[in-house]
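As a representative case, we now present a protein record of this kind.
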Amino acid sequence: MHAPRRGAIEIVEDAVIVVDDAGRIISTSDARTPDGSAAVAHFAAAERLTTLTPRQFLLPGLVDLHIHAPQFPQLGKALDRPLAEWLNDYTFPLEARFADTAYAAPIYGALVDTLLANGTTTAVYFATRHLEASRLLAEICLAKGQRAIVGRVAQDDPAQCPEYYRDPSPEAAIAETSAFISQLRALPGNGAARILPAITPRFIPACSDALLRGLGDLAAAMRCHIQTHCSESDWEHGFVLDRCGVSDAAALDGFGLLTRRSILAHGNLLSPGDLDRIAGAGAGIAHCPLSNFFFARAVLPVRAALQRGVNVGLGTDIAGGASASLFDSVRFAVVASRALESGVDPRRPPAERGVAGSRIDFAEAFWLATAGGGNVLDLPIGLFRPGYEFDAMIIDPDAPGSNLQVFAEDSGEDVLQKTLNGVTRANIVAVFVAGAIVQGAA
């Protein structure tokens, strides 16, 4: 089951998927056709055939566009605190501890294992400002088989960043970011470029203009991904307007940080003009519905963004979001869109309570988590198509401890909708990245 187009589900019974030694899909066919049956016979004879049980099925691997890797120990904690307190009392002290790679290693290992076990085959990570620990995260992703984009966080503004956790100067932050990009591109065992670097200004309030300009110049020279926060909350959005005289999106564009490979987390307060600017640049938005409920006080108008041609995918926003499963982001993306459309204030009359035409359904949310995320990253992932990476998971509704119940009268789309709403880690019995099993067994 996959979503070749937004809102369109394709379910192929008795499918045969042939994968090359590099992990890319060569062909897909129907086992009941001559070509399909010949492929089954050939690979069975060569003992290279993986066969699902009649009730198991394949989904594409999930693409999580926004994760704060060092915040994993904070997952589920302090979500009742205001954002400034959450950052200054919990997050920054925690991230500062990652100067010690002995502290970082087991946390990063547990994070990657957890995400893979939940079906996240591609992860986009904010690391910390520490060069060595950020490289360690990339090395752990490579060793465990996860496809990843990793960024060393840059932040130098003394007004917004504590002295113990900021870059000493714009020049130092730019130099370390450049070194990090070079180190990841030369990472032993990364010849297939499964691990990619990202230029990562935390957000405009945490960075000086000199740092932002320098990172923009570096992006043009290095031609790599860029990730940052954009118009997440009233505070951030207003801060940037006051400081720069323009919106986040316009300011990022002016600094050279809005490109085809830019990943903008949140974007809840983007104007129609901002959305057009982002679409024109080919950049993408990481929609993080769960953390927005906790900290943003706003809901991204996903359908409006998509209708304006913006690339959109999903993120967990660990640890602003309280779940490491992107399936929860799928569920909450639907809930957030329904809340935006219907409104939630019972004191208002129904006609004035929400924003008409805002909802998305399960099929669109599934696309956001798979092919949509691949579109944002400009990578061939998220679909079962020739030329795409074979990143996938086997779902078993009969796995021990399953909450997922599938009955004979359920159609294929019923099964998918039930899965998106009810799947747990127990149902994900095997996970593949580039054709290799990285979790479970098939």
The chain has two domains: 14-51, 62-377. DSSP finds 15 helices and 16 strands in the chain. The mean pLDDT is 97.
